[in-house]
Design brief:
mainly alpha, two-stranded antiparallel ribbon, 2 strands, globular
């Protein structure tokens, strides 16, 4: 698949996925486990039928090599979604996940002994600072609305829970960057097999959801009690929370398949850059649809993100080279 098509899948699938996730957690902030389980199950079932041919096709990459990546992927997915239980608003949730550019570059330098041009460092810092500015200002607005409630219910306790959520997101941030580097090394040894990796990353961790079965069942009951919504064309009504979860799973499949395909075509840092820009687009959509404030600071963050992107891809030299080719 052409990289441009994979990028299209990432932006369309992932932006829609975040939209439905925000609808879910707005109604039930503790729904992270059932959302993660449903996503893993849908992708695993699809891979069982179409990727492994009912597990009759042997994996190219040994299962023992997948074990480490699967452990990291499962941990990152569960921790990121479960952190929403600890008073972490969605915009603040995005800030840490968008910070993966910095984590990826730091671990790449430490573990792979990579080196980058100074312009790349500046670009990454600009993009991260821009997303930080937008998400931080959104988080500040949400925090101001809850200030009175926090004072009455025990603001210190909620602040400590919030710190725990921040610690979880920080851990998941660096674990995700480490997973990306491990995947890059694995592909260099055994070749790139995104569909195979997609299946095993979601199928192997399914038994690990057993300790979370009680929480998953409790939210399944709550979902079934939500008001019905009519499905267009089919004229069938289902509880709206189940509909949101279904759409979240479908868009998650499109999103993550695009990401895994992208890893076969681009280096880890470039993939992280594209994912970071997608998160910025999701933030903008979230601000407008869910009516989060968009101040001058948000516009300042926007200019940093797009300016950093142009600097990272070295747009000036790309244009110069294209003009030179046309002259020749």
């Amino acid at each position: 698949m052409h990289p441009a098509a994979a990028i299209g899948l990432v932006f369309a699938g992932c932006c829609s996925n975040v939209f439905f996730l925000e609808l879910l957690v707005t109604e039930h902030p503790g729904a992270g486990n059932i959302v993660t389980f449903a996503q893993f199950l849908v992708i695993a079932v699809d891979g069982f039928f179409f990727t492994t041919n009912f597990c009759r096709k042997k994996p190219v990459i040994p299962i023992s090599k997948y074990a480490m990546m699967v452990t990291m992927f499962f941990t990152v997915s569960v921790v990121n979604n479960y952190a929403l239980n600890f008073h972490i608003p969605m915009p603040l949730h995005m800030i840490f996940r968008a910070g993966s550019l910095i984590a990826n570059m730091m671990l790449g330098i430490i573990l792979l002994k990579k080196s980058y041009k100074p312009a790349k460092y500046v670009a990454v810092l600009m993009i991260t600072a821009g997303i930080f500015t937008c998400t931080y200002m959104s988080a500040q607005s949400m925090g101001a609305e809850k200030e009175d409630v926090d004072a009455e219910d025990g603001g210190i306790v909620q602040f400590l829970w919030w710190l725990l959520g921040i610690a979880m997101l920080t851990f998941a941030l660096f674990m995700s960057a480490r997973m990306g580097i491990y995947q890059e090394v694995l592909y260099s040894q055994y070749g790139k097999h995104p569909k195979e990796a997609l299946f095993y990353n979601h199928a192997l961790p399914l038994p690990a959801f057993l300790p979370l079965a009680g929480d998953i069942y409790r939210h399944a009951v709550l979902f079934s009690q939500s008001e019905p919504i009519m499905i267009p064309l089919l004229e069938v009504g289902i509880p709206k929370m189940w509909f949101f979860l279904l759409m979240n799973c479908i868009t998650q499949y499109v999103c993550i398949r695009g990401v895994f395909i992208l890893t076969t075509e681009c280096a880890s840092l470039t993939v992280t850059l594209i994912i970071t820009l997608r998160k910025f687009v999701s933030l903008i959509l979230s601000i407008f649809y869910f009516q989060n404030p968009f101040t001058v600071y948000h516009w300042f963050g926007t200019s940093l993100v797009f300016g950093g992107t142009l600097l990272f891809v070295d747009i000036y030299n790309m244009i110069k080279q294209n003009l030179t080719k046309k002259k020749d």
